Amino acid sequence: MARWLMKSEPEAYSWADLARDGGTEWDGVRNNAARIHLRAMKVGDEAFLYHSMSDKAVVGIMRVVREGQPDPKDANWVSVRVEPVRKLEHPVTLAEIKAEPSLAKMELIRQSRLSVAPVRDDEWDKVLELAKA
Q1: Positive or negative, the Cα torsion across 12, 62, 111, 98?
Q2: With a threshold of 0.85, does the pTM exceed it?
């Protein structure tokens, strides 16, 4: 199973929206690197939902329930379907992630503008540890 981080502005689509809807089509991504990551996703992969812009925090865990297919808004791009797994006990802020030396190579920091990025197993575990603090 691979793990990912997927960003959304909470004003556009938040954890509360995902929980209310029971799932969503993750579409509208218009970045070549992110498209590659969406294509690589498999059913059962998990992803952190990261609230970008205003909150700047990892807030929950989602699961990929349908692999990539052409984005319904533009077939040159890719969408996947995700469902909520659970909200984190404590949102993990970007400041907390940056303050943790073991997360220095996390794609969220290295390629901060990328909206979909892989998360290594040790990074995943560390973010979950921080979420319990």
Answers
A1: positive
A2: yes
